[in-house]
Amino acid sequence: MTDKVLGVILGGGQGSRLSPLTQTRSKPAVPIAGKYRLVDIPISNCLNSGIHRMFVLTQFNSASLNKHIKNTYHFSHFSTAFVDILAAEQTVQNAGWFQGTADAVRQCMHHIVSHEFDYILILSGDQLYQMDFKDMIEKHIEANAEITIATIPVTAKDATDFGILKADDENMITSFIEKPKTGLEDWVSDTGAEMQGEGRNFLASMGIYVFNREYLINILNDNEEEKDFGKEILPRAIEQSRVLSYQYEGYWTDIGNISSFFEANLGLTDEIPKFNMFDSNHTIFTRARMLPPSKISGTTLEKAIIAEGCIVQASRVEHAVLGIRARIGKHTVVTNAYIMGSDRYQTLEEIQSETNKGNSLIGIGDRCYINNAIIDKNCRIGNDVKINGGPHLEDGDHELYAVKDGIVVVKKGAILPSGTVI
């Protein structure tokens, strides 16, 4: 796989549906599970599958992502492995931004083809899953396919949010429709007894593709007006080429909006989570930080994930994820929340100085109540602050926080004075 396959991870567009988490960072750079970034998921899947050469294509708010990749993915001088950023750039041939997924790959192709490979694996940078790409590529080779699309069985309710495919008895895709709103009965597929038993009768594209090298070069060069894989390139390729459906039945979620992001993180606290971070065969790689172990005093913990370097004095933390360096004060209750933590510790001198001035410290203060909320990094939440998200709150974007689907998202670096009520 190391010699045959090159990975390309798409950094995504503006990520407005995940705002305000994407106001200062790209979607792949958003922290997940307390210590990782979203981009770590596809990169780790590649590394675990023996694919050690990757490009990450970026455009919007890429500084944080660039820094993370630079500080994280280092390989031996005697290895050909790399994870490199390819940012949108003006050239003599093209002075514009990436106009879509296919256009992004097209504009970067002169960098990509300078490497030896037979197959190119194209991935999204904002999905949560664990997949063995070796098996997918082997199936691609066995079927003599020109393109392979990873598909996942979904229910009728979910089918309207995806590109839906139909395949023949040899799993060759025969037709495709983007986000069907009507006529779903015509798109039912034989997904297997287990999937059908769960009502998952439709094959949805996961946005994960394998292309033969020369085929991809030709299809991008021949159709420069086509900017997107899912909407333009693939529907036409299905009519003309051998396109294989690789059915995946494990856990997979598209981190498309605040609600799905929130559910994915809190789902990690389940007794047996659908996404298994503790599987040694699917290690998740990220930046190695030399942080102390977390310190917890007088706290009742229930269904909680706590990253390194936390200082927790809360009375209760339940159904919550605490990110690196999270600090939570005494008599505070945190439920149904993702606290992302902070990028640094305040020194004892800083803490004393800020306390004397009556300023809030980095972290969450004393006697707070945090429920149905995401607290972005480096926030300063004073004492006696009450944040109670839920359907009773109207969606809206405010100076220090936003509300989406009843979830309160406190913006990165926001300062909530003591006594604030949301």
Question: Layout of SSEs?
Answer:
Blueprint: E1 5-10, E2 31-32, E3 36-37, H1 40-48, E4 53-58, H2 63-72, E5 82-87, H3 101-112, E6 119-124, E7 127-129, H4 133-142, E8 147-154, H5 156-159, E9 163-167, E10 173-178, H6 193-197, E11 202-212, H7 213-222, H8 229-240, E12 243-247, E13 252-254, H9 258-267, E14 295-296, E15 300-306, E16 311-312, E17 316-322, E18 327-328, E19 333-339, H10 348-356, E20 363-364, E21 369-375, E22 380-381, E23 386-388, E24 396-397, E25 401-404, E26 407-410, E27 415-416
Parallel strand pairs: 1-4, 1-6, 4-5, 8-12, 14-16, 15-17, 16-18, 17-19, 19-21, 20-22, 21-23, 21-26, 22-27
Antiparallel strand pairs: 2-3, 6-11, 7-13, 8-11, 9-10, 9-11, 24-25, 25-26
3D structure, described in words:
By secondary structure, the chain is α/β, with parallel strands linked by helices. It is built from ten helices and 27 strands. The strands form six sheets. Strands 1, 4, 5, 6, 8, 9, 10, 11 and 12 form a nine-stranded mixed β-sheet that branches. Strands 15, 17, 19, 21, 23, 24, 25 and 26 form an eight-stranded mixed β-sheet that branches. It starts with a strand and ends in a 6-residue tail after the last strand.
Please describe the structure with a list of short key phrases separated by commas or semicolons:
alpha/beta, 422 residues, 27 strands, eight-stranded mixed β-sheet
